[in-house]
Amino acid sequence: MMEKPIYMDYQATTPCDRRVLEAMLPYFCEDFGNSGSTSHILGERAEEAVEKARTQVASLIKADRSEIIFTSGATESNNLAIQGGARFHREKGNRIITCAIEHKCVLETCYGLKKEGFDVVVLPVLRNGVVDVEMLEKSINDQTILVSLMAVNNEIGVIQPLDEISSICRRHGVLFHTDAAQAVGKIEVDASKADLMSISGHKIYGPKGVGALYVRKNPQVKLTPLFFGGGQEQRLRSGTLPVPLCVGLGTACEICEREMANESERLTEYKNYFMEKILGSLEEVYLNGDREFRIPGCLNFSFRGIEGEGIMLGMKDVCVSSGSACTSASLESSYVLEALSIDEDLAHSSLRIGLGRFTTFEEVDYVSSKIIEVVNRLRKMSPIWTKGG
Ligand SMILES: *Cc1c(COP(=O)(O)O)cnc(C)c1O
Fold first, then answer.
1. Domain hosting residue 250, numbered range
2. Quick check: is 155 in a domain?
3. Is the CB–ligand 1 distance for residue 354 below 6 Å?
4. Count of CB atoms within 10 A of residue 343's CB?
5. Which residue has the higher pLDDT, 342 or 61?
6. Distance CA 86, CA 13 (A)
7. Least confident range of 188-202, 268-282, 332-346
8. Does the CA dihedral 4-332-159-174 come out positive or negative?
9. Residue 105 bears catalytic tag
10. pLDDT band at 88 (very low <50, low <70, confident <90, very high)
11. Model's pTM, two decimal places?
C-alpha cells in the first residue's frame, strides 16, 4: 500500500518547502553576486535579497532586522551565543547555567567552556520535562553571566516557560540565550523575551546549512566572534553570505508567519487523535513530556516491555525516531528521557513521532494503527511481557 515512506520525524529535519526552493533558485546561477560587492548590479541584487530575508526572519520573531545574524544553522548560532557571550563577559564572572535536556550542541559547548575554567551549572528538569525555575533562581550568583535554556525540546516537544525564565534573568541582570530551533515557526515566539535566540532553517521547511542568531540591540548584547575574516554580519560572523540559503531561510520564515495559525490548528487535531488512539488502545503506554505544554507536532511515547527500535523494525515504511541510539555494542537510552527520571526500561522503549506541514490525516490514521498492531504483536511474542506490566 505504502510505496513512498511516510515521514514522521519532523523534529530531526523537515523537507524543504517547494516555494522556498523556487525563491532560492535565481540566486545560484543568475543573481549569483556577492552581497558584499555592492559596487555593481549583481552585488546589489544579492544584498537586496539578503536584506529582504533578514527582514522576513526578524518579522517572524518580532525583532528588528539589524538584530539578525545569519549563520550555518542552530548549532553554530548556539556556539556563537554561548562561547561568544561567555568569552566577552569573562571579566564579569564565570558561571553559565543550562539544563539537562538541552540539545547536544548546547551541552557540549558548555562542557567545552568548563574545561577553560567556566563554572557550568546544569539544571534538572521536572518529571514533565519543564525546567526547574526555582532551581534556576537559586543557581544564579554574582558570578553568573549567561543562562542558556531552550524554548522547546527536540525529543519530547515540551515548551519551556520563557516568560518566567526571562524575567528571572532580567531581575538578576544575566544574559539569556534560548535555543529556539524547535519553537520558531511552530508557536508564537517573541525575541524580546531573550537577549540571544537561535534559529535553524531546516527545522522550518527551509534548506539545511543556514540558520540565524538574534542578538538584542537595546541594550546591545556583545559577543566575541567564533572566527575572523572579512567582518561580515556586524563583525560577528565573517565569511561570504550564502545568498540562496539566506533567501531560503527568509522565505521559510515568511511562510511560517503566514500559515502558522492554520498549520498549528490542524496539527493539534492530528496530534490529539494520534495520542488518544494510542493511549486508549494499548496498556502500559506513557506519553513522555507534559501533556499540555508541548508543540502541536511532537509526540513521544514509551511502550512498556518493548524496544523502540523493535517497533521501527516492524514498520519499515514509516520514518520515526526511537529514543535509544542503537550503537554497535550497546543500547544507550536517551539522556533527555533519563533526565525526566523515567525508568531505564521505559526510556529504552520510546518512540518519537513528529508531524508536520505535509502530514495527512490518512498517514496519522495508518501509522497509529500500525504502531498498535506492532506493539501487540511484539508483546505477544515477548517472554518478559505479562499483562499489566
Ligand atoms: C536541530 C536542532 C539544533 C541543531 O540545528 P542545526 O541547524 O541542525 O545545526 C539545535 N537545537 C535544537 C533544539 C534542534 O532541534
1. 18-255
2. yes
3. no
4. 13
5. 61
6. 29
7. 332-346
8. negative
9. no
10. very high
11. 0.96
